[in-house]
Amino acid sequence: SHLVILVDNTDAAQTLLTELRNSVIALARQMNQLPSPPQMMLVSLAERPTRLVDFTTSDIAIENGVKKLFPRPQSGSYFLDAIVETSAVLQKAKAERPVMLAFVMDQSQEFSDRVHRNVEDALGEAKASLWTIQLHDSARRGGQNARERESVVGDVTTWSGGMNKPILSPQGLPGAFNEVAAAILGRLDVTYGRPASLVPPKRLSIETRDKSLKLSAPRWAAR
What we know:
This protein is of the alpha/beta class. The protein contains six helices and six strands; from the N terminus they run E-H-E-E-H-H-E-H-E-H-E-H. It has helices at residues 17-32, 59-66, 79-92, 116-126, 144-159, 173-185; strands spanning 2-7, 39-44, 50-56, 99-105, 129-135, 164-167. A six-stranded mixed sheet has the order 3-2-1-4-5-6, sandwiched between helices. It is globular and about 60 Å long.
């Protein structure tokens, strides 16, 4: 499996750099302890999407990459661009069950000149799910780019089979990373099939008796 970690390191990250670094390192260590650790990549979002660490199963390599993670003064975020570009990398690598986990901040200005449909299509081509941890801010940025980012965080995450975890302060970062990591690791894939002779249904309804379980299905599952 493949896990891409996208990190917003614009100027707004200055006040939470320690919590952010520690959370990413803890995530990498948790993944490294799995019987079959995923291939992990670390990408920063400020100024342009920058690959700090290429695919590796080593938590040490990710930790070394995190040490290169610094806030970029007067910079904007290229979150949407990073998703599209990384989706192409995952598709080329023929990644199985790829996951993107992104930390984003409302306070950061989004510079990507894309719409959320571009992001949805890119994730669909890579068969990747998008999971986000979003730091809310009362003075969030406005404008078309910010609205498209909000659509990605609020809608495309669900459409891809992922989720968004909102937090209100930097102190919530470690817990949010733990919660999202647990949800990713706890996934079970269920595949449905039917005889080719039957007319495909227009809609499929699924229920579970255990209400603590979360059901999700990417829009492109039938592609």
